[in-house]
Amino acid sequence: MIDQRKPKVIVGLGSTGLACAHYFAHHGIPFSVVDANPKPPLLKELQRDFPLVEFQSLDDKVFQPAEEIVLSPGVPLKSVAIQEAISNDAHITGDIEIFSKAVTKPFVAITGSNGKTTVTSLLGDMAEKCHKAVQLAGNIGIPSLSVIDAEVDCFVLEISSYQLEVIEKLAADVAVVLNLTPDHLDRYATVQDYYNAKLKIYTGCSRAVINRDMDCNLNIQKGVPVVSFGLDEPKNDADIGYKHSDGKTYLVRGQQILLDVDRFGLRGRHNRQNVAAAVAIGFEIGLNSAGMIDAIQSFKGLAHRCELVGSYDGVSYINDSKSTNPASSIAAVTGMSDAAGDIVLILGGDAKGADFSGFDLVCEEQVRLYFIYGKDSQMISDSIGGDKFICKTLAEVVNKLRGSVRSGDKVLLSPGCASLDQFKNYEERGTEFKRLLEKVAQ
Q1: Is 211 a catalytic residue?
Q2: CB atoms near residue 163 (< 10 Å)
Q3: Among 132, 184, 200, 322, the one annotated catalytic
Q4: Digit-coded pLDDT (tens) for 376-414
Q5: What pLDDT, in 10s, does the model give residues 91-120?
Q6: Active-site residue 129, yes or no?
Q7: Domain 307-441 -> CATH class
Q8: 8-93, what's its fold?
């Protein structure tokens, strides 16, 4: 249950902060709200719904030791006001930890550098095919506290490192880290700090699902049952992987063949990992193989995640705007390439301190040509070799593409960077890419 002894101060008035406000109000818990922006977009909604609630600028707020700070994911722990509050012994928590203490139904917790939303969404489809009522929430865009009272068999939470960094003990029924690659180095002092935040998802979990390819100490509590997934052939009956036989590749559980990969709705090597992870979790929450197989075949993926936009003059155009770090771009390149040199890759945006050195060495067989644009275009260009064009905007990239592509190419927007230098979010970036292509096609 939620600790009602301390006054709550919601820091950050985004969708998560507003959901926290409604949750506290519903339970009769006094709260106030602060934000670094003196006029955040949801301030009118807060004042409409809670006219008596105090709102302050974060710069003007002095936190008291008796207060509990409910930190929204967009507010860094390292911000001056929050660090001062911590030094004054204020307790820091977040909506996910509040959810985990109050929820009465089982919940799955999913994190990872890449693939979180795909796995969460696929698992939701699997549950539906198996006639199980589940509620997706968290980083997928639905604040967890806004749906905590849903009548379901299970919750499935996609959780970011930002949400995990304030957690002491999550206690998920099933927890999984899909993968770990460097990301968000503008927010974390070191890569290990970022990894440590992700690995908090296993704290207090009842069962753990792990990636066999991850070579690090997961800090899973002794005695917790563990099931693994990977791209290789599993050694244990409950583990998920792939088996090669008679020129074909099969998804398997132990030695039990589940499905030929040619029948997957999702394409790409990286999506084989995602499918394997979803199946491993699915078995852990009691889904049946028939329903999961049905979902794997019908699930075509999500917008902005290796989404085929169209084919014009023998050239395929793929929108992977969700790619916000170099590792996710590499996964997209290796997953979507069918022949040497068939990828024309669009990179760029805000690199968030990520290192692109060696990127071209990993992708040299697949990528024929690079188009690089945005805030960190020069840094990225200096870090990689190969043939490339540097542009200012995505529109300039699309205009220059026409004279550079040839039949058989796959033009892949997989920026490897955040979008905030030129767009509100990755969705707006991907939508603009599709709009620009439609204009060219016309």
Answers
A1: no
A2: 28
A3: 184
A4: 999 999 999 999 999 999 999 999 998 899 999 999 999
A5: 999 999 999 999 999 999 999 988 999 999
A6: no
A7: alpha beta
A8: Rossmann fold (3.40.50)
